[in-house]
Specification:
This protein has 430 residues and is mainly beta. 14% of the residues lie in helices and 40% in strands.
C-alpha cells in the first residue's frame, strides 16, 4: 500500500506538473501586466507634469484704460463654437470684461455699478450667455451678441441679500448664489435658469433657499461637473457642505458636512467620477475628502495641510498663497495653483502623501495672481492678476512682446474674509 501510494503521488505530479507551470507563468504574466500598467500610469502623470512645466506665454491682453484686479475667469465651451470662444473676467472696478479667447483682444465690458460683481460663469450650452453675481442682491445674465449694456435676465434675491458667490449647474437649469451674513441670516438662493436667451430684460424670482446649513458668509459655490443635482458650498464658518437639491427639503438635501477649521476660499470636485471634494482656506490651508467613503468605515479625509506655504518646498523661491485647483481626468491627478507676491505661478501636484512642486511659471505677472482657467483638453492656462494683466500660457509658446506690466498700487475692492476656526473636523455621515 505504501509503494502504491508513492507511485500514485509520482503519477499525479507528472500529470499536473505542466498545469503548475502554467499557473506560475500566468501569475508572472499578471504581475508584469500590473507593473506595466503602473509604469504607464506613472508616465502619463509625468507627461502631464512635463507639459505643465513647459507652459510659456502665448498672448497678453491689451492694457485697459481703467486698470483693475482680475478676480475670476471663465471660458465659453459650447461645442457649437470651437473656433470663436470667449473669455470673461470679473474685475475689481465692478465690471465684467469679455475677450476673444485666441487673441485676447477686448470685446465688451458690462458694469455692475452701483453693485459689485462677484464671479463669472458662461452657460454650458450657450457660448454667448455670461452670468455674474452682484452685491445688489441679483445674479445678472448678459448676452454678448447684444450691444446693449443691460442684462438680458436678472435673477433677483430677497431684500437683504448681498451675493458674493454663485454657480450654474452643468445642464444650465439651476443657478445657486451665496450671501453675506446679514444679522443672523445666511442663504443659498436658487433660481430656475431656463429662458435666459431672450433679448428683452426680464426678472426672475427665487425657487427657494437653504438657510440652516451655514452660519456665516457663503464665499464659494461649485456644482458637480456631471451630476446637475449635486452642489458644494464653502463658508467663512469653516464648513464645506454637499447638497443633493433633488431632495424635498434642506435637511434631507444635506449629504455631508466637512469642516476645514478655517475660512473657505475655494472649493472643487476631483477623482474618478468626481466623488471627491477639496477646499482651500484664506490662511492657505488645504483639505481633501473622499465622499465615496461616507457609508463605509474608511476615513473620509484624504489629506489635510494646515499651511501649504510650509508644505511645498521650492528652491530659491517660496509659496505665498494658493489660488485654486483643477482635476486632470487623463492623469487622474489633482493639481493646485499658487504663487508669489511678485507674480510667479507655482504648479503643484496633490497626492495622499502630500503636495509637490511641478514647476514655476515666471516672467509673466508682476503682482499677485488672483484668477485662472485651466483648459485641460488644450493644455493651456489663462491667468489674471493684480497687475491688470490677462495672460494665455501654452506649452512651448513664444511671445512676440515681452513687456511686463508693473504692479498696480490700488486698493483691492475684495474683502479678505479671514476668520480662523478651531472647531473639530466632522462629517454628517461619520
Amino acid at each position: 500500500d505504501v509503494i502504491a501510494g508513492f507511485l500514485y503521488a509520482i503519477l499525479i505530479l507528472i500529470v499536473f506538473h505542466p498545469v503548475v507551470d502554467l499557473i506560475d507563468n500566468f501569475n508572472l504574466t499578471y504581475k508584469l501586466l500590473i507593473t506595466s500598467r503602473t509604469a504607464f500610469e506613472m508616465s502619463a502623470v509625468e507627461k502631464i507634469e512635463e507639459q505643465l512645466a513647459a507652459l510659456r506665454i502665448a498672448k497678453r491682453s491689451t492694457p485697459s484704460k481703467e486698470p483693475a484686479y482680475l478676480l475670476d475667469i471663465d471660458v465659453s465651451r459650447s461645442a457649437q463654437s470651437q473656433s470663436n470662444r470667449f473669455v470673461a473676467v470679473s474685475c475689481s472696478n465692478k465690471s465684467l470684461r469679455v475677450y476673444n479667447r485666441e487673441t485676447l483682444s477686448f470685446l465688451r465690458e458690462y458694469s455692475g455699478r452701483p453693485g459689485t460683481l462677484n464671479g463669472v460663469r458662461f452657460a454650458h450650452s450657450h457660448d454667448s450667455l455670461v452670468f455674474s453675481a452682484c452685491s445688489d442682491g441679483t445674479v445678472k445674465c448678459w448676452d454678448i451678441r447684444v450691444a446693449a449694456q443691460q442684462a438680458v435676465q436678472v435673477f433677483s434675491g430677497y431684500p437683504s441679500n448681498v451675493f458674493i458667490s454663485f454657480d450654474i449647474n452643468c445642464n444650465d437649469l439651476v443657478i445657486c448664489a451665496g450671501t453675506e451674513k446679514v444679522e443672523k441670516d445666511t442663504f443659498l438662493v436658487f433660481w430656475d435658469a431656463r429662458g435666459s436667451t431672450g433679448s428683452a430684460s426680464t426678472t426672475k424670482e427665487p425657487l427657494g433657499v437653504y438657510s440652516e446649513s451655514h452660519n456665516d458668509d457663503v464665499t464659494t459655490i461649485c456644482f458637480h461637473p456631471t451630476k446637475p443635482s449635486l452642489v458644494v458650498s464653502g463658508s467663512t464658518d469653516g464648513l464645506v457642505n454637499v447638497f443633493d437639491i433633488n431632495k424635498d427639503n434642506e435637511d434631507d438635501a444635506l449629504i455631508s458636512t466637512c469642516n476645514s477649521d478655517s475660512s473657505v476660499s475655494f472649493i472643487g470636485w476631483a477623482g474618478k467620477g468626481y466623488e471627491q471634494i477639496y477646499c482651500m482656506t484664506h490662511d492657505e490651508g488645504f483639505c481633501w475628502w473622499d465622499l465615496a467613503q461616507l457609508d463605509t468605515e474608511e476615513p473620509i479625509m484624504l489629506l489635510r495641510v494646515l499651511d501649504a506655504r510650509d508644505a511645498v518646498c521650492i528652491e530659491n523661491s517660496a509659496l505665498n498663497y494658493l489660488v485654486g485647483g483643477v482635476y486632470h481626468e487623463k492623469a487622474d491627478k489633482l493639481f493646485l495653483i499658487g504663487g508669489t507676491s511678485a507674480g510667479n505661478i507655482h504648479l503643484i501636484s496633490c497626492g495622499v502623501d502630500g503636495l509637490g512642486l511641478v514647476g514655476t511659471l515666471s516672467g509673466g505677472h508682476s503682482a499677485t495672481v488672483r484668477s485662472f482657467y485651466w483648459n485641460v483638453a488644450e493644455e493651456s492656462l489663462l491667468t489674471g492678476g493684480e497687475d491688470a494683466q490677462l495672460l494665455l500660457w501654452r506649452p512651448g509658446a513664444v511671445e512676440r512682446s515681452l513687456t511686463k506690466k508693473t504692479s498696480m498700487k490700488i486698493a483691492s475692492s475684495v474683502q479678505k474674509r479671514v476668520r480662523v476656526h478651531n472647531s473639530s473636523l466632522k462629517s454628517r455621515k461619520k
